[in-house]
């Protein structure tokens, strides 16, 4: 699950996109060939596969809104990934970029009946959008536009299917998230400590963090922080928060205990505590965090800093793992492209979603250090090749680990998330606090929240 912290402040950016629409782009052929003797042409030739005719897309001026929620995207990335390819193909469409500026903004959109036309979301927001009945099932449009679902990495498709009962498709994936451990080489150099290596466990990383957590020249250096909250470690072990069958909290387990104990050991290193909301700025802007177990979006921010003349001396290693799951890391799930139920331009919305999942666009985002939603391994070979900030970096670390499978979800994910985060905050501030007691209290509160909503 992705944390709800760290959303960009409200921002509206209007981009005009130009070219004559020639119809919805198709990213695959899925029709079945006619079978039997009646389907064969004279001379033994087989007729072409029968495909649907994609709906026509308007060539009149169209203005739509594009919502970015929880799945981070810089202004530069929006311009390159969304504006440029759409402008190249669909010149009559104008997109207004809207960024989510507060937690309850999605519900406000629904209440006001103005959910933006296209939604770019992370797992937590995607779940909430489906629960709010604010996204369309795309199955009919997938069929009408001859989209070949088999071209996608199964990880993304399975995550989307988990948003419903496995039948509805409330999104298509634009890319796949991942986690990596970024580190500030200057801090390690300053204290003459060796850089992190690939393959560290959380115990290893915590011991290393102790060596670079200190105060020097008036600066309080933190050794290691996590991009998010305690839920990240739960993701890494694929831990559900609510049992999908009983709809009861399931936080009092040995693995959740391991999660809280690890989180407690990390943040109770003397001098290492850091408010989760401050993690990104502490690492990137203020640069007093030595290691940051973070998400893929940080690469775009580091690139933007370099382009602005403020480069950071950084590299990366694999995200620390639990010895109980030595190859599994957090950060699973796609970047969801969703279509608002409110949109009056659904043919145009789906045309853009389709365009952004095609090879040309997937090649572009791969070169700019985002993992492609498509399963072809060729995208790994070009990963990050267009970014100046990625030159000389340990790119192989991105592909050495496996994102942990997403656990089954329920409509009470937000309630579970809130309790896991609250429990983590408690243990992170008190090394003597009993994690069993904290988890018992959290599960009781979670069950009360569930009952109140039934």
Task: Spell out the blueprint of helices and strands.
Elements: E1 12-16, E2 62-69, H1 75-89, E3 93-99, H2 105-112, E4 118-121, H3 123-131, H4 139-144, H5 154-161, E5 172-176, E6 179-184, H6 185-190, H7 202-212, E7 214-216, E8 219-226, H8 231-236, H9 254-267, H10 279-284, E9 289-295, H11 297-307, E10 314-317, E11 328-329, E12 334-339, H12 346-356, H13 359-367, E13 371-372, H14 378-381, E14 402-403, H15 413-428, H16 435-453
Helix pairs in contact: 9-15, 15-16
CATH architecture of the largest domain: 3-Layer(aba) Sandwich
Q: Largest sheet at a glance?
A: 7 strands, mixed
Query: Uncertain regions: pLDDT < 50 for 5+ in a row?
Result: 1-49
Order of helices and strands: EEHEHEHHHEEHHEEHHHEHEEEHHEHEHH
User: Distance between the terminal alpha carbons, to the nearest Å?
Assistant: 23 Å
Q: How many structural domains can be distinguished in the coordinates? A: 2
Number of helices: 16
User: What share of the residues does DSSP label as strand, in percent?
Assistant: 15-25%
CATH class (first level) name of the largest domain? Alpha Beta
Q: How many whole angstroms does the radius of gyration measure?
A: 23 Å
Number of strands: 14
Please tell me what the overall shape is.
globular
Q: Would you tell me the overall average pLDDT?
A: 88
**Helix percentage:** 25-40%
CATH superfamily of the largest domain: Periplasmic binding protein-like II
Q: Assign the CATH topology of the largest domain.
A: D-Maltodextrin-Binding Protein, domain 2
Record the strand order, biggest sheet. Answer: 1-3-2-4-12-5-13
What structural class should be given to the helix and strand makeup? alpha/beta
